[in-house]
Amino acid sequence: MTHPTTLPAWQALTEKADPKALPSMRELFATDPDRFATFSLRLDDLLLDYSKNRIDRETRALLLDLARQAGVEAAREAMFGGEPINLTEHRSVLHVALRNRSDRPVRVGGTDVMPEIRAVLARMKTFSERVRSGAWRGATGKPIRDVVNIGIGGSDLGPAMVADALKSYQRPDLAVHFLSNVDGTHAAEILKLCAPETTLFIVASKTFTTQETLANARTARDWLVSALGEAAVEHHFVALSTNAKAVAAFGIDTANMFEFWDWVGGRYSLWSAIGLSIAVAIGFDRFEEMLGGAYAMDEHFRTAPLEANMPVLLALVGVWNANFLGAEAIAILPYDQYLHRLPAYLQQLDMESNGKSTSRDGHPVTWSTGPVLFGEPGTNGQHAFYQLIHQGSRLVPCDFLASAETHNPLGNHHLLLLSNVLAQAEALMRGKTEDEARAELTKAGLSGAELEAQLPHRLFPGNRPSNTLLYRSLDPRTLGMLLALYEHKVFVQGVIWDINSFDQWGVELGKALAKAILPELSGDTPVTPHDSSTAGLIATIRTLRTG
Ligand code: F6P
After folding, report:
1. Ligand 1 centre and the CA of 219: distance in Å?
2. DSSP 119-145
3. Is 3.30.70.120 the CATH number for 107-287?
4. How far is 426 from 216, CA to CA, in rounded Å?
5. What is the ipTM for the molecules in this complex?
6. Cβ atoms of residues 91 and 109 within 8 Å
C-alpha cells in the first residue's frame, strides 16, 4: 500500500502542472495536427476522445507511470482473481463474474462461483419470460401489467437507470416502476397507477434490512392484501437478496427469491438478480446482450496494456484534473434523453465508492479523492448550469456522451443535439480571447466606453477539460460497455488514491441517528439529549404536527 504523493510520478506530475509552464489547449491542438488520433481510443462502436484535456504525451506517460507505481495492474489482477480486496468487510469484489461470458472459472476462497451465477441467471430467464408471456398470473388469474421494483441505492438506481436507458426496448403493455423513497408520496403515486390483480412487486435488497425498502414493501403488501387477501402474496411478491432468512421472515416464500452474494457490492449489483426488473422490462435476451457488452469492456480492461486501456485512461485524466489541476467536481452530460438517470446512477457508483478520506492502511489522506459528481442531459443543462462551467471560478471537467444514431428519428432533432454537444466541448476547450471578443462586439456595432465595459464579461478563459464518449446507438451492448467503463474507471482511481472503493461506512451514522429520532417525533416520547438545533427542530415538528 503506497500513499500516492510519495510516488516519483506524483512528484513529476506536480512539477508538470505548474500553470506557468502548462500550454493551453489551443496551443496543444495547434502544434499537434494528430492530437485527436493520439488522444482517443476506440473499442468496438465506442469511442473515447480525451484530447480536450490539458495533457501532452509526456503528461500521459507520467500518468501511466503513476498507475504502474500505484500498483493498478496488480490490483486489477487481485479483483478479477477474487481476492478479498474489500479490506474492511473482508470480501471479494466480483461484479465482473456476473457477466463472465467465458468458460473461465472465477473462484472465491477456492470455490468456482460461476455455476451458481449461471443457475440464478437461468431462473431469471424463466421467470422474466413467464411474466412477459403472461404465463405468470396474479392471484385472480390475470397476467401482469405493472411491475414495481422496491429498493433503494444500488437496489434501485442501476435497474431504474437501465430501464429508462433502454425504454425503446420495452413493451407498452408491461410498465415497470421503481419505488425507492421512504416518503410515502412515492408509494402513493406509484400505487395509483397500478391495479392489485395485475401488479407484481420485486423487493430488491441485498441485506433485506434497509429501512426504506422494508417500509415500502410493507405498504405494498398491505395494499395488495387489503384488495386480494393474504393468499395473494405469493403470486405478487418476489425478492432479490443475499439474506434468505430475512426474506422468509418478511413473508415472501424463498422459492420466489433470486439470490446473489456478499461479493456483489450494492452499487455494482445491476448485473446480478438485482437486474430482474430489467430482464422483465426488456426481455432476458436483451439483458444478456447488456452483460455481453460489460464483458467486452471487462476483457479489454483486464488484458489491454495500460496505455491502450480505456478505463485506465479515463481514470488517469480524472486524476490529472482533480489532483494536479484542482478540479473538485465532474459533470456527467449525456446528450441522450434515455440516459437522463445516468448522472444519479454514477453519483452512487463514484461518490459512494471513492468518497473516502482514509487510506487503505488507516491514515487520513492528504490528497483529494473522489470528486463531486452531478449532471443533466444535454441540451437542458446548457440552459441551467453550463454558465458556471464556461465562466465560473471553479474548474469542472465534463464527460459528454452522445450516440451517432437515434432510436427516434424526428426531423433534424438528432443533428441539432449532436451539433450542440460538439459545440459545447469545443467552446470549453477554445474559450474566447480578448481579440475575438473585441472583434465580435465591434461587428455588433459597439464602440468606446460601452465596448470596453462589455468586454470583460464576454471573455471565456477556455482550457476547460472534457472527454467525449461517442457510440453508434444506445443499445443494450453499448450500455453494458459504458457502465463497465465507469466501474473500472472508479476502480483505477480508488487504487491510485489508495482507498477502499468497496465499503460505505459513511452512510451508517445518519441511519443510526434516524432510528433514535424516530420515536422522539411522535410526541409522547421524551427527547434524548441532542444539540440545540436538532432538539429545536424535533420540538417544532411536534408542535406543527399537533398544533
Ligand atoms: O446506503 C447504503 C447502502 O448500503 C447502499 O450501498 C446500498 O446500495 C443501499 O444501501 C441499499 O442496500 P440494500 O440493497 O441492502 O437494501
Report:
1. 19
2. HHHHHHHHHHHHHHHT-SB-TTSPBP-
3. no
4. 46
5. 0.98
6. no
Q: Is 511 a catalytic residue?
A: yes
What is the percent of the chain with per-residue pLDDT over 90, rounded to a whole number? 96
Q: Name every protein residue with a CB atom under 6 angstroms from any ligand 1 atom.
A: 152-155, 205-207, 210, 213, 266-267, 352, 504, 507
Contact 496, 71 (CB under 8 A): no
**Percent helix, strand, coil in the chain (nearest 5)?**
55, 10, 35
Q: How far is the CA of 265 from the centre of ligand 1 (A)?
A: 9
Quick one: pLDDT band at residue 48, thresholds 50, 70, 90?
Answer: very high
Is this structure's pTM higher than 0.95?
yes
Alpha carbons 312 and 96: distance in angstroms, whole number = 16
Q: Architecture of domain 506-546 in CATH?
A: Orthogonal Bundle (1.10)
Q: Could you tell me which of 200, 207, 191, 202 has the C-alpha nearest to residue 249?
A: 207
Q: What is the pLDDT of residue 547?
A: 52
- Strands ordered across the beta sheet of 175-179: 175-179, 146-150, 199-204, 237-241, 257-259
Rounded Cα distance, 304 and 41, in Å: 12
Tens-digit pLDDT profile for residues 433-471: 999 999 999 999 999 999 999 999 999 999 999 999 999
What's the whole-number average pLDDT of the chain? 97
Bridge partners (DSSP) listed for residue 175: 146
What number of residues does the chain have? 547
- Topology annotation, domain 4-70+304-430+466-502: Rossmann fold (3.40.50)
> Could you read off the pLDDT of 90-110 as tens digits, one per residue?
999 999 999 999 999 999 999
